[in-house]
Structure formats: C-alpha cells, structure tokens
Amino acid sequence: MTPAAPSSAPGAPVAQPEINWTMLLLGFAGMVIGQFMAILDIQIVAASLPQIQAGVGASADEISWVQTAYLIPEVVMIPLSGYLSRLWGTQKVFMISCTGFILMSVATGLSSSIDTMILFRAIQGFVGGAMIPTVFAVAFTAFPPDKRVTASVVMGLIVTLAPTVGPTLGGHLTEWLSWRWLFFINVVPGMLVLFLVGRYANFDKGDPSLSKGFDWFGLGLMAVFLMSMQFVLEEGSKNDWFADTSILLLAVAAAVTGPAFVWRSLSYYNPIVEFRAFLNRNFAVGWMMTFTVGAALFGGTFLLPLFLGRVRHYSSAEVGTTMVVSGLAMFATGPFAGRLVRAVDPRFLMFGGFIMVAWGMWDAHAVTDDWGFWQFAGVQALRGVGVMLAMIASQQVTMSTLPPHMVKNASGLVNLGRNIGGAFGLALLNTSLTTNTALHMGELTSRISQSDTAVQEMMGGMSGFFANSIDPEGAAMKAMYGILHQQATTLAFGDAFAMLAVATAVAASVTLFARPVRPGSVAAGGDAH
What we know:
Elements: H1 21-43, H2 49-56, H3 60-63, H4 65-88, H5 90-109, H6 114-128, H7 133-141, H8 148-176, H9 181-184, H10 187-200, H11 216-235, H12 245-267, H13 281-310, H14 316-343, H15 346-364, H16 373-399, H17 407-446, H18 453-465, H19 472-510, H20 519-524
Helix pairs in contact: 1-7, 1-8, 1-10, 4-5, 4-6, 4-11, 4-17, 5-6, 5-10, 7-8, 7-17, 8-14, 8-16, 11-12, 11-17, 13-14, 13-15, 13-16, 13-17, 13-19, 14-16, 15-16, 15-19, 17-19, 18-19
C-alpha cells in the first residue's frame, strides 16, 4: 500500500494495514524491558548498601553515593534523549544506551573500590537514562490512536512496579548470591533488549540536519542546572541544607543556570529542549500532575520501608513482603485503568486517583510503633490503586493533545518531571523526619519529671532488669532514651505521611484546571491549546 502522506494536522490517523504488529510489539517489548532495567537500578541497591559498603571498604558517607551517583547524571540524559532521538532515530539511541548500560553494570559489579564504583555508576545512570523517556515517545507515535492507552498502561506498570520491587529484589539477590549480582543481573535481559530492539524497533529515522548548530552552551547550562539541583535535593537534608557551603554554592548555581537555560532554550534556533509544549494547557497541568505522581510514588516507596526498618527493625525480606501489597494493587489496577480512561474524562480519574492516595496517606498518619503488614495493607492498597489511576490518566492528558512532532521532546520533559518530583518529595520528607523527630523528642522529654512517681518506679524496675550490668542506672537511662526516641520517630513518620496526604489532596484540586477531555479524544489525540 502507498504510505499515507505526512500531515501536520494533530492526531492524523495511522492507516491500520500499514502496521506490522509483530515488529511493533516485539520492538516495544524490548524497549519496555530496557526501561524496567533502568528504573529498577535506581532502587535495587537500597536494601544492600551495608553489604556493598563492606565489600568495597567504603565509609558510611561514601556508600550513599552508590545511589546518588546514578541519579544525578541520569536527570541530564532524560531531557537530552528527546533531541538525540530526533537526531539519530529512536532505535540507534536506545541501542547505544542499552550497550553502555550493560557495560557499566558489569564494570560496577567488578569494582573493588568505592571511587571506581561511583564513577561507573555515574556513567551507568547517564547512558541508561535514555532508555526511560524514549519508550513513552514510541507509545504515543508508533501505536495507532486506539491502542495508545494499552501501551500507556504497560508503561505505567513498569514505572510504578520497578521502584517498588527494586529493594526487595536487591535484598534477596544479595542474600542468595552476593551484592555484585545486583549489577551482573542486567547482562542477560540487556542482551535480550539489544536483540529485540536491533531487529524489530526500527520505528523512525533521525534527522542529521539537527546536528548543525548543536547548542553546546545550552547543554552546559542544562547539565549544571539539573546536576546541581539534583545534588542539593539528594544531599541537602543529610548536610543541614544551606549550613553546608557546598550545598549553598550548588543551590546558587542551580538558581542562576536554571533561568539562563530556559532563556537559552527559548531564544536559540536549535534548542536541546523545546519548552513550547508548556503552551499546551493540558500538557502544563499534566506535567504538574506527573511531578506530584513522582513525589507520591517515590515518597511512599521511601517512607514505608524506612519506617519498617527503623521502628520495626524488619529484615529486607520482611520489608519486601509487606511492600508487596502496593505492587499487587498497582498491577491489578492497570487493566481497569486502561478501560476507565477510555470511558471517563481523565481529569476525573486523576482527581480520584490523587484523592485515594491522600486517603491512604492520611490513614497512615495515625501510625504507631506496632504497625506491620496488616495495618499497612489498606494504606498500600489505596496508594497503589490511586497512583496507578493518576499516572495512567495524567499520561493521557499530558501527551495525547500534543502534535506528533512535539512528542519525543515532551516525553523527556514528562519523565524529568516525575524524577524531579520524586527528588523534591524525598528531600522534603527527609527534612521533615529529621526536624520533627527532634521536635517530638524535645516535647516528650519535657513532659517527663524525675520527681514523678511513675517515672521513678519505671526507672527502678529497669535498673533492676540491668542489675548485672556495670552501670545499671546508666543502662536504664539509655533504655528510656531508646523508648522515647522510638516514639518520637514514630510521631515524625506520622507527620510525614500527613504531609504527603495534604500535598496529594491539593494536587487533586489542580487536576480540574485541565481542559475537559472527551474519553474518545484521548485515544485519538489532538492539539488542545
């Protein structure tokens, strides 16, 4: 058949007979596996940092860089990948990204020192970052309009499940084999990705003319801005924010280069990132919702395991068993979300999804130090269902009303928004936990009087329990401090859950500012400004 003539009209239908479904589905499957690997690797080391620390002889401060070094360069590649896909074509960019990711995974696993591990992790995050947004672009360009929701559901499952199962999978791999297999495990699926993408994912061609006048200055501004901001968000709460000189200097660098990068992108004739997508009202609102989804997704995935580890002293396997409810809820919701988004205005699904997350997080603000699997089951189910509904609906609202030539660039902006939202969420939650733990500790200790009869009896009983120690009274005081600190920490977690609930409830109201989207038009696409 003669190919349909290209049209600039948004949402121009793709002729069904021209689609080779075998090529499309196998190529897309390969890209989805690559995307899963790249997102999984952010969190897969979370439960195994002590073992990695012992294996490479790192200090407590240095070992946190195994995660941070991956995230900081990744945020630069995510928006850059849209430009590279337009320049070289999606297939070539994905193949280069996956090859580099596999090589750096092996190099990281073979590392014998923390310095080489941090270097290889940084390169791994940078090259692997291109595998995340390119899948989104393919879902909204290669698939016919009536199948885009299904592709979006698949991506939503990957984006939500990968960070959820990462710590659990990593903990079990370290327990069964060794921490080096956290990285070696990428080799076999990576080879499968290279085969599928190389053979079946020839979805588009690049435009070599874009290489003329490449904006190196804009790239430099973007790199400094995003890397500085990511560093500040990742490390700020650990270093008392602006009391630390390096945090302050990098915050200033981000504040200066951020506006400069936006100005450069808007004024240069061949910008790396096109911000014109934000003129589309639905894209702008959808981007804000994606930002909030990132905070809700990564924030919940951060708070629950941390509480179970710090307060309940669960092992990584026990944490994984408790967290599985959230993943199961997301997985079960995916197919229904796909059907609902075809039948209901996506704005209402976003609203309902965020309200469910807020409800679950608000229930968790009453957490006590004896909460375990069953107490968190309802919380996680609400959060899992809500995040999935909000994510699928926000993807449709954000991407489906853009003209096709903006989709590749916009997919990078959307994924960047989710990552930055997660970073902002974690920074705020970390700071909240630190500040409120100290605040509640002060409140609890101020209410305890040494002259109180009940306190004296309790201390006497504890001193008797530690009678065989060298300093029974000192041991009793230490035990009392531990009890108070556990209660203060629990109250601080309750405050953090409440903060997440309020933020998602506010986000729910913002969803109504998007333009009304008829369910049928979501699948078909369009250009609603």
